[in-house]
Amino acid sequence: MRRPDFDGQWQELSEEVLSGMKEWRLQHPRATLGEMEAALDERLAGLRRRMLENMAEASQTADWREAAEGEKPVCPQCQQPLQRRGEQERGLQTQGGQTISLKRQYGVCPECGVGLFPPG
Ligand SMILES: [Zn+2]
According to the model, what pLDDT value does residue 60 have? Predict the structure, then answer.
């Protein structure tokens, strides 16, 4: 499995959130508690979305490129192993009601020609 650099990425992400929040607070010295909460939620929601993207992309990459023969995704119709056709952006809805955008690997069945994103 490709080793995702979560430490580096997330360190950066959280620093962005923290310094962004500090910045905001300095620019809004008279903010109400509700405004602070909204500003914080907005940043945390962004952090959540990007962490989800990172994790989902890492498992997707692990699923296909490193899969052993016989474990590669197959066409649900013909049971033929899909041929990789690169990556495409795909929007997915999260439980938090946000849309995250993932680069998903896309495959085509050599038998019937159907193209699909394998689950993962
Ligand atoms: Zn097929």
Answer: 63
